Amino acid sequence: MRKIRKGDNVVVIAGRDKGKRGDVARYVDGTHVIVNGVNQVRRHTKPNPMKNQPGGIVAKEAPIHISNVAIWNPVTQKADRIGFRIMQDGRKLRFYKSNGEQING
Questions:
Q1: Dist. CA 20–CA 39, nearest whole Å
Q2: Which domains does the chain have, with CATH numbers?
Q3: Which of 51, 78, 85, 86 has the smallest CB count inside 10 Å?
């Protein structure tokens, strides 16, 4: 089970975009995620008439390493660490380490 999942609200804790927040859009591989609005890069694209795609400079999100993001705790309004609890029925749930609250989802 992953500590950070798709749809989680995260904050960047290191790098050029330190302090920015966004939702995890998807996992690229086991260690990189794409976060909406974070780590934007500009790409120069050629026009492609077959795909009806105009050329120019396009901004898009680049992958960011998972060690450079932390989950956002809405109660404390800070970045937080994640722990796991195994319930009586065998389910594994995530919780915030700072206040022990369970994470929804």
A1: 9
A2: 9-74 (2.30.30.30)
A3: 51
* Residue 50 region by backbone torsions, left for phi larger than 0, else alpha for psi between -120 and 50, else beta: alpha
Q: Residue 36, CB half-sphere, CA atoms under 13 Å: how many?
A: 8
pLDDT tens-digit profile, the chain (105 residues) = 789 999 999 999 999 999 999 999 999 999 999 999 999 999 999 999 999 988 999 999 999 999 999 999 999 999 999 999 999 999 999 999 999 999 986
Task: Please measure the distance between the N-terminal and C-terminal CA atoms of the chain and give it in whole angstroms.
Answer: 12
C-alpha–C-alpha distance, residues 41 and 35, integer Å: 12
